[in-house]
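Extended Data, record Replication initiation protein
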Amino acid sequence: MCDTSKIITSTQCVIVVKHHTYPICETSINLLNYYFYYEIIISNIMYWTGCMGEKIKKENRVQVYQANDLVEAIYEDDLTATEHKIIRYAAAKINKSPDHFPNVSFTVTEFINAAGISSKSYHSKVKKMAGELTRKRIRIKTEDEEGWFPWFKGIVYRSGMVHITFNDLIKPYLINLTEQGRYTKYSFPTIGNMQSPYTIRLFELLQQYAPIGKRTFELDKLKEHLGVKDKYKQYGHFKSRILMRVKEELDDINVLTYDFEEIKEGRKTAKIKFDIKITDSLDLGGNLKEEDIKVFLEKARPLIKEYGYDIPNRQIRAWTIFGIDELKAVLEDMQQYSTNVGHVGAYITTILKSRRKDYLKSASKINAKDEKTKDIIMRYLNESKGTIPPVPDWHIKNKLVGRFTKEGYSSEEFEKVWEENGEYIYNVINHKAVR
C-alpha cells in the first residue's frame, strides 16, 4: 500500500472525511485563499498519482500455453527461429488476456526483454518477417477434424510496435486450456536464446512427453513436425544437421535434453526413439541450496555486466556449480583473447563445462575419499599455474598445511593427505606430471 499522507500532499488538495475538512498544505491556502471542498476517494488518489514512490513490481515470467494438438501440428514451411518466437510470444500474450482475442500488440523491445536476449537486429528481423508469416500454414489434426490454416490473419509493424490478428480457427488451441486439460506449458525465456528453429520445435515436442521420459517418432513424421519434410533426403544429413545440433544447443541451455536411438527396418532408419532428460538449471549436484544460488547471482550479475555482457538470470543460475572464480577466469580469457561469439551464454556454458571436465579428470588422480580434500588441492594447483620450477617439496608442503589448517584439518589428517598426494602435487607444480 502507498503512504496516503504523501499522496495527498503531492496532490495539494483538501480531503473530506465524514464532513470534516483537513487542509493538506498551507501553501495551497495562501495561493488559493480558500479550501477546495471536494470529496476524494483514496483509491482515486492512488490511481491519479500513480502511487508515487511505490516500486513497480516486475511482471511474472511469460508462460506459453499450447494445446497438445497444436504442439503436434505439421508445419508446411520451414520457419525461422524468430518466426517461432514471435508466434509463441503472441500466444503467451493472448493467453494472458483471452478477452482481447484475436488482437494482440507489443513492442519489439518488450519482446526482446521477455526473451532475455540482447540483439538490436531483432527490429529489422521482425519487420522483415511480418509479411511472410501470414502466409505460412500449419496442419492440425484432432480426433474430429483436420485442416490447414495460417496462424495469423495479419501482422502490422509500425514504429517499433507489432500488431497481430490471430486466425479465428486457432482460438480453441490457445484459449482456456487449463479447463480443457491436455496442454503443454513452458516459460517463454526458455526458447528466447535458442538459435535454431528446430531446437524450438523439438524442445516443444519432447517437453510434452517429459513426464514420461521417452518418445518415439517415425522419421518422416518427425521431419513434418519440424517443417523439413522434403529436405535432408539422406538420414546422415538429418542426423548431423538437426538431431546432433539441436542436442548440442539444448545441452548448452540446460533445461531439457535427450539421447536418441535409431530404430531400423532392414538397413534403413525408420524411427527415432528419444530418451528425454530434464536438466533445469543444470545439474547442481543436489548439494546447492537456493541460498547458494542467490549468493552466486549477487556476485555474478555485476561481474558479467562489468565485462559488457547481458545474460538472463536463468542461465547464470546454471553456472552456480562452477563457482564465481571459474566464471571470472572464463570472462578474463574472453576479454584477453577478444573472443567474439554470437551466443555468449552458450559459449560460456561450453567453456565452463570443458574446464569442469578437465578439473574432474585431474581431481581423479588425487588420492582422497572426500571432495573437500580434492578441492583444496585442486585450488592450490590452479593458483600455482605459471610457477617457475624448481619448487622444493618443503615449500609446497608449508603452503598447503596452512590451507588445510584453515579448513579445520588436524596435523595428523594433513600428514596423511601429504603422504598420499605429496609426490603427485610436487610433480605437477614442477611440470613433471600431467594434470
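Summary. The mean pLDDT is 79.
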